[in-house]
Design brief:
The protein is an all-beta fold. The protein has a domain of about 160 residues: YVTN repeat-like/Quinoprotein amine dehydrogenase (Methylamine Dehydrogenase, Chain H, 7 Propeller), CATH 2.130.10. It is about 5% helix and about 45% strand. Strand 6 and strand 7 form a beta hairpin. The longest helix has 10 residues. The chain is globular. About 5% of the residues have low confidence.
Length: about 375
């Protein structure tokens, strides 16, 4: 990792996340790596733990004493932040790819998580045919036992996208996806759900009403790639993907109090948004383009191929939504996270990661 205060490097840690107070920075990355914990002020590694195979997601409890690490098979483990001692570990899952991006509850007692619409069909003897009975499940993990409880099921969506928690309002957000096949290819339909307090079927509601701006030109719903929350201003940021419909990706900024919205439209040649991070002054957006898009003209494809803009990091000014900096990155950016002080930023890419004590250094950055 490259930390610019002073600088040093540790490779192959694309996932980065700050602890709630900003005291620690955790990393996890490619298969076979360990969870690495940094002391941000001293810029020193204070712990490296191998707690589960093929880690995908990590997170801190509100008091920073406990962490979770979850793998691409849906298994999860809870461990002590400063020692790596395992508190509880789930039973091995039989399915690949179960689960979304977990989050600790506001009180730190459980982690809420989701699943895709489970594989498998149900044979309806009365109808004498197979019926689609797959559902996305919202589940909570007990931190002390790693036992899970399903608290809500949705027949239309997989609940395996980003999950956010507003500790200020004890409000939770779930990015849901519905994937299906049509003539144009593999398409996703999306929704965002929200609840307050302990999740159950009675207090979960869909938000982000489906106005025309969320539809593609042919009337279908565009795919939501990522969601991010800026708590101090009660703004929800939603990355909308237009790649299947020949439209540019966009960022929807929704005021959760007034329901007012703003839109940032990205370059048409980008495939999708990898991640976003927001502070009071700027919006960081990491974009990825590595496949030929059939809606591109020959000129657009040649421009993309020659300009080497497969991986880019955009900086937008919050007050005006003006693009103040575009950085051509050397490899794919997977994760962005602002320090709670709003100045420091961590950027996790496929082959490298960096920490800057002041994000404004990006304004003069050259990769």
């Amino acid at each position: 990792m490259r930390i610019y205060k002073p600088s040093f490097r540790l490779k192959n840690f694309p996932t980065v996340v700050f602890s709630p107070s900003g005291k620690y920075l955790a990393q996890i990355g490619n298969s076979g790596t360990k969870v690495t914990i940094w002391d941000v002020a001293d810029c020193k590694v204070i712990g490296q733990y191998k707690v589960i195979k093929n880690d995908d997601h990590i997170g801190f409890s509100p008091d920073e004493t406990v962490m979770f690490s979850k793998n691409d098979n849906g298994d999860i483990v809870f461990f002590e932040t400063l020692t790596g001692n395992i508190i509880a570990k789930s039973k091995p899952s039989k399915y690949y790819g179960l689960g979304g991006c977990p989050q600790f509850s506001a009180d730190g007692k459980y982690v809420f998580d989701g699943t895709p619409r489970n594989a498998g069909m149900v044979f309806d003897e009365k109808e004498n045919r197979w019926q689609d009975r797959r559902t996305g499940k919202l589940q909570i993990w007990d931190v002390n036992t790693a036992e899970k409880q399903v608290v809500w099921e949705n027949e239309d969506y997989g609940l395996d996208g980003d999950m956010l928690v507003s500790r200020k309002n004890n409000q939770y957000f779930i990015q849901a996806q519905q994937q299906y096949q049509i003539e144009e290819g593999h398409i996703g339909d999306s929704a965002i759900f929200s609840f307050r307090g302990t999740p159950n079927a009675d207090n979960i509601a869909e938000i982000l009403p489906r106005t025309k701006k969320y539809r593609s030109k042919n009337g279908r719903w565009n795919y939501i790639e990522r969601i991010a929350l800026h708590e101090s201003t009660n703004k929800l940021f939603v990355a909308i993907d237009g790649k299947y419909w020949g439209e540019p990706p966009s960022i929807i900024i929704r005021d959760l109090v007034t329901d007012d919205e703003q839109i940032i439209v990205l370059d048409k040649t980008h495939q999708y948004v990898r991640d976003m991070a927001i502070n009071d002054e700027v919006i960081l957006v990491a974009v990825h383009t590595n496949h030929y898009q059939k809606h591109w003209t020959n000129e657009e494809y040649e421009h993309a191929k020659q300009s080497l803009n497969w991986y880019q990091l955009y900086l937008y000014k919050r007050s005006t939504l003006e693009n103040v900096k575009t950085i051509n990155w050397k490899d794919d950016i997977f994760a962005l996270d602002f320090h709670p002080n709003g100045k420091g930023v961590a950027i996790g890419a496929a082959k490298d990661a960096i920490y800057l004590d002041d994000y404004r250094k990006l304004l003069s950055w050259e990769e």
